[in-house]
Amino acid sequence: MTRTPTIARRTALLGAAGGALALGAAACGSADQEQPAAAAPGTDGLTPVRLQLQWVTQGQFAGYFAALDQGYYADEGLDVQILEGGADIVPQTVLAQGQADYAIAWVPKALASREQGAMITNVAQVFQRSGTLQVSFADAGIGDVAALRGRTVGNWGFGNEYELFAAMTAAGLDPSGDVTLVQQQFDMLGLLQGDIDAAQAMTYNEYAQLLEAEDPATGELYRPEDFTVLDWNEVGTAMLQDAVWASSDRLGERAYQEQTVAFLKASLKGWAFARDEPEAARDVVVARGSTLGASHQLWQVNEVNKLVWPAPDGAGLVDPEAWERTVRIALETRNAEGQTVISAEPDEEAWTDEYVREALDALRAEGVDVTGEAFTPLTVTLEPGGA
Predict the structure, then answer these.
(1) What percentage of the chain has pLDDT greater than the value 90?
(2) What does the alpha-carbon distance between residue 154 and residue 243 come to, in Å, rounded to a whole number?
(3) pTM surpassing 0.85?
(4) What phi-psi label fits residue 16: left (phi over 0), alpha (psi between -120 and 50 degrees) or beta?
(5) Which of 139, 167, 235, 310 has the smallest CB count inside 10 Å?
(6) Alpha-carbon distance 333 to 170, whole Å?
């Protein structure tokens, strides 16, 4: 399935000098703020491009750092600046306000911003699978979602909770009454200290933190068999996560269209590098100033590769079934406050595969493996504290 902007929409966009954004509170825009035109080439002949990450420097974004380090962006005529994220940075808002040219954001969160006025479009669905888990100690006996009944369940909130709530609802649990919900910090201390029975974790980060911690009963590091994991991909409530978002309005400009293809081509080549050279990709991330250790970063790169590869039809393409599942959960699942992510179906310009298909064709012509069908993950040994 191919999604492209309608002819009428393209015509309207081409006639616009940069639409004013009237964004809601979640989009944090300004009604008189204009989208910038494509940046003019710098003195080195490269076009400046800003990419806003959704979190701090880590292996979650290895492909983009690899593309920068290996010169793939420069090869496409781009001078890319990678902007670090953080707890107080909403990447799709930064993009919508014109302070970045592209942003990495989870699909449900970005759709919520789009519904509230942020004109952003998913142009590459890099993560094909969800990396979110709910983790408990094995001796707690939480082998399925129904076993969460009567337990203390942690989640981060901020839009990260909907896979969990959808799973509990499907299992016949009332999230507001059948479990005790706890606002979890962005670590695993609540689980390790016994304050939480089942904690939220990403495969590539918090789950590794558990395996880097010492079991006080043995003096050794915890092992995977010490824990039980609920994987939303297996449960059936996985939602799409890291995607590349572009300015919907600027996609009406030919220069921005061409820049988007070039950016995606280099980025996906970076992800292929991270797949084929995970240790080198780890070194790139560490050299960029990650605060996490080398073994933790290698774990991250390895686990993130599992979310990207294999990509049977080509990395970055949206799986329509996964998209529809994400939209359905975003529409129907209510959080503890009774809120859904969105209130209406996204319009047809919420995503397009036009530019990523062109990028994939160019990569195939260069002999780059864009499906990763032979991808085999590493076995990573974690060190205490992730050192």
Answers:
(1) 86
(2) 25
(3) yes
(4) beta
(5) 139
(6) 10
DSSP 213: S
Q: Secondary structure of the chain: what % helix, strand, coil (to 5)? A: 40, 15, 45
Measured at the CA of 362, the angle between CA 100 and CA 9, to 5 degrees, comes to 50
What DSSP character marks residue 19? -
Which helix H or strand E contains 361, and what residues bound it?
helix 354-365
**Contact yes or no for 117/29 (Cβ under 8 A):** yes
Q: Which residue has the tokens 């989208």?
A: 35
**Please, where are the H alpha helices in 101-148?**
107-115
Three-class SS state of 194: coil
Q: How far apart are CA 375 and CA 196, in angstroms?
A: 36
Size (the chain), residues: 387
Rounded Cα–Cα distance for residues 4 and 353 (Å) = 7
Q: How far apart are CA 386 and CA 381, in angstroms?
A: 10
Q: State how far the alpha carbon of 36 is from the alpha carbons of 52, 60, 245, 263, in Å.
A: 16, 28, 16, 17
Q: What is the dihedral of CA 134, 314, 331, 170, to 10 degrees?
A: -40
User: In sequence order, which residues have a C-beta less than 8 Å from that of residue 258 and are 6 or more positions away?
Assistant: none
pLDDT single digits (tens) 284-303: 999 999 989 999 999 999 99
